[in-house]
């Protein structure tokens, strides 16, 4: 953020601003400048596929988001445009997963995937929450993506049949091609994992068109819905498109982490009983909301 940009916000130049800010406000301004600089670097790139430069820049973005104290979040967000960050983050995640799907299909071991631990930790959290709601035997995973590691891990941990749904035909083709490789590279079985009868299939379908009445559990990936309003519309649809008693797990975000993924407003769950809301404070970026479809 340069002085011209600051003037555009009606807040004066940065040098003028600093003389009137307290320590917390100055920290928030410094963090916002760092994040704005990272965003500018990413938006200037022609290719967001994995490379040392791209990986390092996204790594800087994630570290800043995770390491910034929660007390600064609102002040930092007020100085930024979260939708721009979420857009570039979504594009980068898709490019990363697409590239790694090809690498793993070509023989690279899953252990080399730099974010494998994050996927493992999130799936362990989600499976634990879902087990508390009762047995999950048939799961629809909305937004499975080209590297469906989350769907595979959830199937394995729950011992459930998981259907990955995605509206992107290329992502579905990648997922179908890579799933056998992911299933073959079994990580150590997690404590509390399912009995091992997991199955994973993939279908091309939009979340608004898919028949979800056959599933007892629906998982909504973080990038399904780009804004809080999108999440509201989707949850209203799910309340009408699922059976009473269906458990819905929605990935969300809180605080500065909403620069990477949109938050799910709890008042958007009008057709559901909220069972659990978990906001991790470690390297797991996503919050998790679990709810059960009401009978009326």
- Give the CA-CA distance, first to last residue: 50 Å
- The CATH superfamily of the largest domain turns out to be Vaccinia Virus protein VP39
Our estimate of the beta-strand percent is: 5-15%
**Computed Rg:** 20 Å
Number of domains: 2
- CATH C-level class of the largest domain is Alpha Beta
How many distinct beta strands? Answer: 7
Order of neighbouring strands in the sheet with most strands: 3-2-1-4-5-7-6
Mean pLDDT: 89
The name of the CATH topology of the largest domain is: Rossmann fold
Structure notes:
There is one protein chain. The protein has 296 residues and is an alpha/beta fold. It has two domains: 3-80, no CATH class; 112-293, Rossmann fold (3-Layer(aba) Sandwich), CATH 3.40.50. Helices cover 46% and strands 14% of the residues. The chain has ten helices and seven strands. The protein has helices spanning 3-8, 14-18, 23-43, 52-67, 73-77, 82-105, 116-133, 149-158, 169-184, 228-241; strands at 138-142, 161-166, 199-204, 217-220, 247-252, 272-278, 287-293. Strands 3-2-1-4-5-7-6 form a seven-stranded mixed β-sheet, covered by helices on one side. Helix 3 runs antiparallel to helix 4. The longest helix has 24 residues, at 82-105. It is globular, with a radius of gyration of 20 Å.
